[in-house]
Amino acid sequence: MLTDLKTEDRRTALTPHPIDPGTRIGHVHLKVADLERALRFYCGVLGFELTQRRPGAAFISAGGYHHHIGLNTWESQGGSPPPPGTTGLYHVAILYPTRAALADALRRLMEANIPLEGASDHGVSEALYLRDPDDNGLELYWDRPKEQWPRTPNGDLAMVTQRLDLRDLLRAADAKA
Prior knowledge:
This protein is of the alpha+beta class. The protein has 2 domains: 26-78, 2,3-Dihydroxybiphenyl 1,2-Dioxygenase, domain 1; 88-177, Signal recognition particle alu RNA binding heterodimer, srp9/1, CATH 3.30.720. Helix content is 24%, strand content 25%. It has 4 helices and 9 strands, in the order αβαββββαββββα. The strands form 2 sheets. Strands 5-8-7-6-9 form a 5-stranded mixed β-sheet. The chain has a 4-stranded mixed β-sheet with strand order 1-4-3-2, with helices on one face. Strand 7 (125-131) and strand 8 (137-143) form a beta hairpin. The longest helix has 13 residues, at 99-111. The protein is globular and about 50 Å long.
């Protein structure tokens, strides 16, 4: 069984030929029920910029990239989210470049009265969890520098899930201002 193996042996057994380490996930495409409502949330609240519109679709990004998120109603116009207990997307994780940028995202959510489902310090990152207007799970997070990531005595990653101090996070936005 894989669980009986040391961490490095498990990695090798699961992935004997790893993917190129430069590989990245470039964008996500979400089915939404109401394109205008989705744009009000992703652009109006979170601050993404609209890069292109097509019939039934919109493409948004940060910093001028062609698109980080595609939104479409091609198969979902007026639809409802999948019921709990079914397979599908758990959440989309949006990586912010700094703690101050994540704090700004928290402030935007608060100003728009968007509730959080959770807020966690994972040791490697700090994360905010919420739902978009179509009930898609979102994680907004920033990564700590790799050299600060918690490790076990033998060097394995030691992620945790602890309560994130939101007041302290908001102070990071205040320090940036």
